[in-house]
Amino acid sequence: MGSIVSLLSGAGFLPEPEQKPVILASRASTLAQIQTNAVLDTIRSLNPTNEFAASFMTTEGDKNQAQALYLLGGKSLWTKELEVALLEGDVDILVHCVKDVPTTLPPGCELGAILEREDPVDVLVVKKGLPYKSLADLPDGSVVGTSSVRRVAQLRKSFPKLEFKDIRGNLNTRLAKLDAPTGPYVAIILAKAGLVRLGFDSRITCPVASPTLYYAVGQGALCVEVRSDDPKIKTLAASLNHWQTEWQCRAERACLRVLEGGCSVPVGVETTLVPLRGTTLGKEPERCMLTLTGTVTGLQGTPHVEHTIMEEVGSVTEAEAIGVLLARYLMDHGAKAILEDIGKDRDNRNAIANKVPAAN
Ligand SMILES: NCc1[nH]cc(CCC(=O)O)c1CC(=O)O
């Protein structure tokens, strides 16, 4: 029957079956929608003969804003419901911040592309009306809002007299909480990329970069996730890939995977990729010098382990191998103890939150 239909259709007797649009999906936050619409524009312009549309969903991470992020513990807070929709075929391409994507994806899902990274740096945003120009300007005891253990741990090391307090909600909510006249926060720390995408560049007081604050794995880059068994969609998605960013982010993610982290471990990175010949990286992959720094910091700002590997690489696999080497070095030089300590702390707090004894 199928063959008859296609025969007839091929001969022009039946109209061509209507092509279903390829559905891009993400969380429903303003930032996620802006990001997905940007990716939609790009994928449309690169694949003009295909139809695309967008779909937005609310995830666990959006709903549960009361509990501290690291107590929620689930590494796939932002991605799980979307992945169910992806695997069920309701949607075709998920758009995420690389930073929010767990280092191990569920079976049947994979990253289809990593897009060109924006500036991955963290920034300070001071409350409206206050005169401070940097973290060093803030009076002792000032309350700085961030819910990232990476930021708190690293900043405690340099600014032991500041107080760090959890702040949740999407970017707009956090800025509103910061500026609330009776609110506790004097400043907050955010990723520059998110602020810029939302058009809040003007709120940036100053960057907070290494060696004070190493950024999060994948920070500043977007990626798309696809079904492993969907070659047509994979080809469309691959058109979005920026190989330089992919090498960098995959090296960072390989490092974090070995450190057994998610968004909830105090791991910082800094990565550069420089071509061996010439000064600019071209469209095609070429041999490069990869410089990858990783840090792991105790929640109170100490101990702190930091290491850099500089190595020539000629493929994404070689870049990932450097990430693994870096993680092993860090583990052998203090990171293991730091991460074990944090694991115990989390078990205890979870136990208190759930009123059940901690598992040993
Ligand atoms: N879940 C928070 C999150 N995930 C990605 C970004 C920033 C944008 C990016 O890194 O691409 C943010 C906000 C922040 O850390 O300030």
TrEMBL record:
Reported EC number(s) for this entry are 2.5.1.61
Transmembrane regions: none
Q: What pathway is this protein said to act in by its record?
A: Porphyrin-containing compound metabolism; protoporphyrin-IX biosynthesis; coproporphyrinogen-III from 5-aminolevulinate: step 2/4
Porphobilinogen deaminase C-terminal domain residues: 248-330
Q: Does the keyword Transferase apply?
A: yes
CDD domains annotated for this entry?
PBP2_HuPBGD_like
Q: Which domain of life is it from?
A: Eukaryota
Name its co-factor(s).
Answer: dipyrromethane
Tell me the Pfam families matching this sequence. Answer: Porphobil_deam, Porphobil_deamC
User: What sequence ranges are listed for the domain Porphobilinogen deaminase N-terminal?
Assistant: 23-234
Gene3D superfamilies according to UniProt: Periplasmic binding protein-like II, Porphobilinogen deaminase, C-terminal domain
Q: Which catalysed reactions does the entry list for this protein? A: 4 porphobilinogen + H2O = hydroxymethylbilane + 4 NH4(+)
> Keywords assigned by UniProt?
Heme biosynthesis, Porphyrin biosynthesis, Transferase
Q: Name one GO biological process term.
A: heme biosynthetic process
Which Gene Ontology terms cover its molecular function?
hydroxymethylbilane synthase activity
Provide the function of this protein: Tetrapolymerization of the monopyrrole PBG into the hydroxymethylbilane pre-uroporphyrinogen in several discrete steps.
Similarity comment text for this entry: Belongs to the HMBS family.
Name of this chain's protein = Porphobilinogen deaminase
